[in-house]
Amino acid sequence: MELNFKNINLENQLIKNSFIEKYLGKKGNLRSKEIKKHKTDSLKVSVFIGLFAWLAIGIYIENILKALALSTFFTIVIFIILLQLPLAKKRKKTKKFEADLPFFLLHLATEIKIGKNFSKAMKDSCKEENRAAKEFEDVLVDVKKGMSFQEALEKMNKKFDSLNVKRALSNLSNIQRHGKRDVTSIRKLAQELLLKQRIESKEFSNKMVMYSLVFIAVSAIVPAMFQSFILVGSYFMALSFTPEQVFLIIVVLFPLVDVGILAMINSKTPEFLKQ
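^ that's the sequence the OP posted. Answer follows.
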């Protein structure tokens, strides 16, 4: 058995030999096979899109070399974006978990305080309908399969890249290991997390005023000014805009900018405000 573990570790080291694989293995918590498959799939998709872009750009600008340079740059950008997807998913998963974590901790502290043992309190707390409860339910499933509670928490800790999660799991491990009834530590941590959420909510509310002004300007004022410029300016200046270009700018470009701003606002919105 020991020899098999050594062989597995050696195989993992041989597979994780590039910067990309080391980066994904460390930041994304992916196994060697998952890293290799994700890198290969990302490369295939980006090359396919790059070839299609080369064809489309080449037909449009009628210059193969320039189209090749542009499509190569586009391919690299797509490849980098695809590589970042597991990390983005992990960050989003962590944010969702942190949003519900203080409520789970407060519920667990209440269950222990009324006299339930730790195992019963954990089981009852996992009945709640939130992300944190579902994650801790997986911990209980691992314990049933034969893992120790500490090993199950360690497995859970690897899913997230968060100091707050580590603090919470450390407190739960200490309570379970020593059979403590004092839940002051997890109550205090839950209150700190709730206070942090309130602060983030106020900061986002202040920023939302600016975001709203930018969105109104881009979605209403700028298109109106552009159309006025086209209509009035055509009498005084030799504009190079064709009717097709004006149509594409108004119907395609401005809506895409609006969607981009909305996506940016959504990305800046704290996860606990989306629920």
